[in-house]
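Q: Here's a chain of 481 amino acids. Please give me its 3D structure as tokens.
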Amino acid sequence: MKVKTNTKGLQFKIWLYMSGFVVIVLSFIWLLQTQFMTPYYRQARISSANSIVDTIEKALLKQNDYSQDSFDIATVKNYLQSNNTCGYFTNQSVNKAYIFNDTEPSCYAGFTSSDLLLYSSKAGDSPSLKYSETYVTKSGQSRYLLVEKMNTSSLDNQEGDYYIIISMALDIPNTTIQIFRSQFLWIAAIVVAAAIVLALFIARRMSRPVVEMKNKATLLAKGDYTVRFNHGGYSELSELADTLNFATEEMERTEELRRDLIANVSHDIKTPLTMIKAYAEMIQDISGNNPLKREEHLQVIVKETNYLTSLVNDMLEISKYQSNTLIINEANFNLTKLVNDLADLVRENDEQVSIDIECPPDLVAYGDEIKIGQVISNYLGNAIKHHGDDQSVIIRVLAKGNHYRIEVEDHGSGIAAEDVKSIWDRYFKIDKNYQRTTTGTGLGLSIVKSICESAHYDYGVDSVLNRGSIFYVTLKKGKKG
């Protein structure tokens, strides 16, 4: 089976870049050695000439007599041979000269006494007491000549000035270049092969967690919310895995809420529609001529129609809040009056529940009065549905620094800690055996969340299981006008 290489994949890219980098480096080294080795070698040889001359001069200046037997020629000769250099030591009249190294036949080939006198004269006339030049021998070899006048002022010298003359080859031996090129080709071939294998190994190792994440992300996109992303051994991949795991959990939770929403909305819509149809048929077939029965049946139809209207309005309200089109109109308003008006409205609609108010008189708050009214109303509606055996609900306003905290307390069954975060979601039910409420649409707390987050009001709930709950919202204090 032929395996197709993904040339746009991460693994191939890493392998290609690493292999290419090795090839570029080797090519650069090859270029340096073939194109720049000779100039570098020539410059290095010329730079070393001054050091060689200075070393010889120091050795000779230790002698008071420059006769051939008065100093160790062998030491100087060995030093020059180790540096592949020829050396002359002569006086100004060239009537006394020693050859320190004559192992190279081309060292002084063609040099005459006149040449030596000329070079000595040029060195003596130079401020640096040195003269140098590059020349080519008859055999085509490039050489470098350096002549230095010795500083013999401290010596008892009767024979005039002395000069050190050295000559060195500037060309790299062909055999050396051939050996180097042959070795370099073998080494380069081995290094490239090893680099390609190593790059493939590293590329696979580095890309494996990314490929694994990609495959799991594909499953996630297809709706498999059970996938979990593993840490990849690198901090960036570990952070990405944590983010993807969090997103997966949120998507799984959202999907569950979506299914519940569809089921609950379908149930809430289907039930009133069924009742409206049934009572309309009853009016048509049974109670058409009976005013009392007809009125009773019409009241049911009106009630269910009102419920449907409230449900649609609440859903539209939530949609408006979540689309960021909500306009917050904040101003100073009488918080005490708003709380009392809302409590009176609840008492008119439900006389069985006692509404107690703990609010100082004439409190002025700063916020959107209509939106805050919706928040308190939804808190009250929720508290009435979950009131305890005492059938009482408390509205409390507390001053805390520069804010007012409005609390609505019931003494019902309370909320488990693990459910507190979810109660603000649409149609979330602590009891999954959902039954349509007799009052409200089940969207009240979701509307509270949307309003408070849009207006940046602090909100939440403090609840103890089997003891009751306190829902709250916080407002800034206003200024009395």
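Q: Can you summarize the key feature?
A: The chain is about 50% helix and 15% strand.
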